[in-house]
Task: structure prediction
Amino acid sequence: MSGTTKYRTIITYKNYFEDFLLKQRQKVKDKIAWTFLLIEDVKQVPETYLKHIEGAYSLYEIRVQLGNDIFRIFCFFDDGKLVVLANGFQKKSQKTPKQEITKALKIMEDYYENKK
Result:
């Protein structure tokens, strides 16, 4: 382990993210892993990789691109430094599907309910 400071820690909640990850080919898994390291290790993460979702309270999307394939992994912060992964999907159009945002918001709600 190098002596670098981690600015964030990424954790998963239940198996939403794992279910998504298992379906991806190795190159995509590698790119997702690389993106996670960047998010954990960089003080100010560029919007290219982590972006707040407009109108969705405290939901963010981790943005992963590999060639023409675009993937989104929803996440939210807990205790400021903990990034909790929700669901992921492959983006097929310009707009993020509303049902994916709804699913992520439900996961976030569930997370906070179970945390109490």
In short: The chain has a mean pLDDT of 93. Strands lie at 9-12, 50-52, 60-66, 69-78, 82-91. The radius of gyration is 14 Å. The longest strand covers residues 69-78.
